[in-house]
Amino acid sequence: MINEELYVKSRMSQRDNPFRVPEGYFDSLAAEVMQKLPEQTSARRPLTVRMRPWLAAAACLVGVLFTATIYLLSPDGATQAPVATTSAEDTYVEDVADYVMADNYDIYACLAGDY
Amino acid sequence: MTDDKLLITQLTDPKTQRRAFETLVRQYSEQLYWQIRRFVLSHDDADDVLQNTLIKAWQGLGSFHGDSKLLTWLSRIAINESLDFLRRQKNMVTMSTDDEETGVANTLMADDYFDGDETEAQLQQAIAQLPEVQRTVFLLRYYDDMKYSDISRALGTSEGALKASYHIAVKKISEFFKSHD
Fold it and tell me: Which chain B positions have a beta carbon within 8 Å of A6's beta carbon?
């Protein structure tokens, strides 16, 4: 293979470049090409492409917040509901006690079933 | 900063981009032209393909990140434009097998911008008749001394396949020369 390659290279190198170009072709080429170029091109990546990492981060954050919100609002996940329930019950008992003008002794007796 | 790195920096700045691209055209167009001409053979076709190559390079500046040399990137575009041109040309021309064997040589001999003799014309025909990958790797290895890795990236063909194709191409061209001794 190496001998064959050397043979081909030696035969090829004996030959001059058979192709030629019109006179002055390369001198006028740059001006011709620049004339055909569109006015503007962005060397920077489009805004949507550059914003992708930020959009992805924002989407993740929204997802986390949404999941957390769903979890907190669900009955099993809510930690403050018993406190709220207890407060509502306490308020109700106090309102009833005020209405019937019951003192603490009467309330205890009622709760114990001795009333 | 090397010339290439400076040019790349200027190409990414909208204020200097156009002037930098003109520099790129002046610096690399001749080398690209000859690379293309060896594929398409005719000056008019080479001129068309070269201008398409440079316009595509301009439009694709945003996709060039400096991870290869400018010339390597430009060559990749030029090679693919040349191959696309040849495929379109092959689809358009309907010839019999006999006509195809003599067509390239005869066309070259009639070309005002071809100064070779008949043997040279037949050599170009022998190269033109190689399958696409063999022709490409032979031309780029022999005339441009292009690395297999760069050709591989341009064509999307493995280096192993390219080396095998080059070996076969060399064998065929060697047989051509021996038959014309």
Answer: none
Report pLDDT digits (tens) over A16-61: 899 999 999 999 999 999 999 987 545 555 566 667 778 888 888 8
- Chain B within 8 Å of A41 (Cβ-Cβ)? yes
- Comparing alpha-carbon positions, the chain A residue that sits nearest to B19 is A34
A18 touches chain B (CB under 8 A): yes
| B1-94 under CATH 3.90.320.10, yes or no | no
**For chain A, how many residues are written?**
115
- Pair B146, B75: CB distance under 8 Å: yes
Kindly tell me the burial class for residue A25, based on how many C-beta atoms sit within 10 Å of its own C-beta (0-12, 13-18, 19 or more): middle
**CATH match of B130-181 with 3.30.420.40:** no
Q: How many Å apart are CA A78 and CA A73, to the nearest integer? A: 6
Q: Where are the domains of chain B?
A: 1-94, 130-181
Question: In this complex, is the C-beta atom of A50 within 8 Å of any C-beta atom belonging to chain B?
Answer: no
B54, B170, B173 ranked by CB distance to A33: nearest = B54
Instruction: State pLDDT tens for residues B145-177.
Output: 999 999 999 999 999 999 999 999 999 999 999
